[in-house]
Amino acid sequence: MEYRYLGSSGIKVSAIGLGTWITFAAQINCETATECMRVAFENGINFFDVAESHSGGQAQIDMGIAFRRLQWRRSEFVVATNIYWGGKGPNDRGLSRKHIIEGLTASLKRLQLDYVDIVYGQRPDPDTPMEEIVRAFSWCIDKGMALYWGTSEWPAHLVMEAIKVAQQLNLIAPVVEQPQYNMFHRERVEKEYLYLVDKYKIGMTSWSPLASGVLTGKYNDGKIPSDARLAIQDHPVINRLRAGFFSAEGHRKIEKVQQLVLIANKLQVTPSQLAIAWCLKNPMISSVITGASRPSQVEDNVKAIQCLPLLTKDVMHELDTILGNKPEPVFNFRSS
Q: What is the pLDDT at residue 226?
C-alpha cells in the first residue's frame, strides 16, 4: 500500500480507501461489512469513509460494530464521516451550527468512537452563512470531536471562501475536498480545483472511481446484472444513474468502456484496477475511496496500486484518446 499526506496536514491516508455508500447496510449485512473492513486493513487500507446519510445512519452503526469486533488500535486507522442529511426534520439537514454539532454527536455515538479524524460538510449549504459553518466545524475540532474538517462536492470558490473566513477569524480551515472523480467525471478536479491545490494545498479524497460500476465492464452487454448497484430499486440516486445508463450518452460511455477493457487486457489488469490506478495517477489525489460488496472486491481493488507503473505517458495518452474528455489546460494569455 502507498500512503499519501492529506493535503498540507501531517496525517497520512492509504492511497485506496474503503467507503460505505450503497453497500453497507444496503447491499451487505454487518458480518460481510466487517469482513470487508478486515480484509481492507490486512491489505494496508487505513482510511474508512462513511456518512450520516448512508442507509439512514445504519452504515455508521455497522462500521462502529466492526471497529469493536476488530479491536484495532485507534492510531492504526483513519475514519471520516460526512454531515448534511441527518433526517427529515427542519434542522436535521444542512450545515447550520445546530446540525453540524448534533449530527456529529449522533455520528460518534453510532460509530462508537470518541472522535473522527475527518468530518466533511457533505454539500455546500447556501442557506447558512460561511462564518457559522467555519465556527461550527472549528468548535467540533476544539472539543475533540474531530481532528480535521473538509468539504465534499463544494465548488472551488466556496472552499476558498471557507479558507479565507477561517484565516480572518483565526479559526480552523478545511484541509481536504472530497470530489467525485473518474474517467468520465474529471473536469472539476483537473481544472476547477487546480488553483485550490496549488495555492492552498488542499487534499483530495475522491469517490466513485468506477462510475458506479460502469468502468468495471460489467454492463458492456447493455444489460444490468441482478446483483449490480444499478439494479437496486427505489433509491433516488440509483434511479437517476440507471436512467442515464439507458440514455444515448450512456450508450456512448459503454462503447468507450469496451475499448478501455481492451487496454486493461493488454496490460494484464482488470478494468477496475485500471480505472482506480488512473485516478491515483493524478498527484492531486490523496486517496481514492472505493466500495465493495464482498472481500474479494477489496482485494481486487487494492491491486490497483501495482498498476501505477504500467500507466506510462503513452498509455495515458491512449486512454485520453478513447475518453475524449481531457480538459483543456488553463490558457496563458502571455504566451499567445
A: 66
pLDDT at 61 over 90: yes
In the predicted model, is pLDDT for residue 234 greater than 90?
no
Q: Are 231 and 22 contacting, i.e. CB atoms less than 8 angstroms apart? A: no
What's 192's domain CATH number? 3.20.20.100
Look up cell 488500535; give the residue: 73
224 Cβ contact partners less than 8 Å away, ≥ 6 residues apart: 230, 231, 242, 245
Which residue bears the cell 462513511? 50
Q: Is 208 in a helix, a strand, or coil?
A: coil
DSSP state of 88: S
Give the residue from 195, 114, 153 showing the smallest Cα distance to 289: 153
CA distances from 130 to 14, 52, 121, 145, 161 (A): 31, 21, 12, 20, 8
For residue 290, the enclosing domain spans 3-219+271-309
- Which triple of cell numbers denotes residue 284? 492531486
Residue 163 included in any domain: yes
pTM over the 0.90 mark: yes
User: Which three-class secondary structure state does DSSP give residue 198?
Assistant: helix
Half-sphere exposure of 245 (CA within 13 A, CB side): 24
